[in-house]
Amino acid sequence: MTAIPLRPPRRLVDLTLDGEPVRAPEDSTLLDACRAAGKDIPTLCQGDTLTPKNACRVCVVEVAGARTLAPACSRRVEQGMEVRTDTERARHSRKVVLELLASSTDLSTTPRAAEWIEEYGAEPDRFGADAARVDEEPKVDNDLYVRDYDKCILCYKCVDACGDQWQNTFAIAVAGRGSDARISTEHDAPLTDSACVYCGNCIEVCPTGALSFKTEFDMRAAGAWDESAQTETTTVCAYCGVGCNLTLHVQDNEIVKVTSPHDNPVTHGNLCIKGRFGYQHVQNHAQNRD
């Protein structure tokens, strides 16, 4: 039997959050420390399975002695650090970021966006009717998932999941510069002509609903999507012996989408095309049995 080497204990550092003493592992981020202390810090581009990108800047906090606000999702804790999460400067920054995002993109399916806009007093309409918006029609070029870039905030999480952080397919990347920047396939080809393998891991990490299951997209369009009426059941994928965990989202006795637990040591939230989209045989079997 092979012995499993023990890791050295994680060193703890002392810091203060909003005047309260806190102890946190030295390799953790300010966002980790805030969440452990029960502080609700808004964030959009942060993902628990990806390296922070510092893209959305909604999670900024004020660090004593620092010239600029620090993104809590990537700034590591330090011994003696003094952090304030709810200062006027931090709140104003979050307010402006939310206003800019909501004025240019559709945040209607972004979890907690409306709550944060109200909390920070953001007024997206103050930029007027002429404010530049994405206003792009959803791309429906396959039967598995839809790309609605009108909801995209360019957080790059889908690019990272498709690229070197998980899938290594590199089917999508950032195209264009400045206000013309967008997520695109190579030469803006249809998804069916790209390198996409339809693993759907980009959907898993998308924080705004810009990428969604075709079933969810169609049900939302029909006004039938109701997360409050859905149940979630975690099981093991039956396609192979890897042991990937699946979470089945069921509404009206039908599977409407499949996700995977991010804390699962096998999948870390990732699946292949069969695991994420190959659930029709379950419903066909149930219908035939009925």
UniProtKB/TrEMBL annotation:
Residues 11-89 form the 2Fe-2S ferredoxin-type domain. Keywords: 4Fe-4S, Iron, Iron-sulfur, Metal-binding. The keyword Membrane does not apply. Transmembrane segments: none annotated. The keyword Iron-sulfur applies. Residues 143-162, 188-216 form the 4Fe-4S ferredoxin-type domain. Residues 230-286 form the 4Fe-4S Mo/W bis-MGD-type domain. InterPro entries: 2Fe-2S_ferredoxin-type, 4Fe4S_Fe-S-bd, 4Fe4S_Fe_S_CS, Mopterin_OxRdtase_4Fe-4S_dom, MopterinOxRdtase_cofactor_BS, NADH_UbQ_OxRdtase_ferredoxin, PSI_iron-sulfur_center. This is (2Fe-2S)-binding protein.
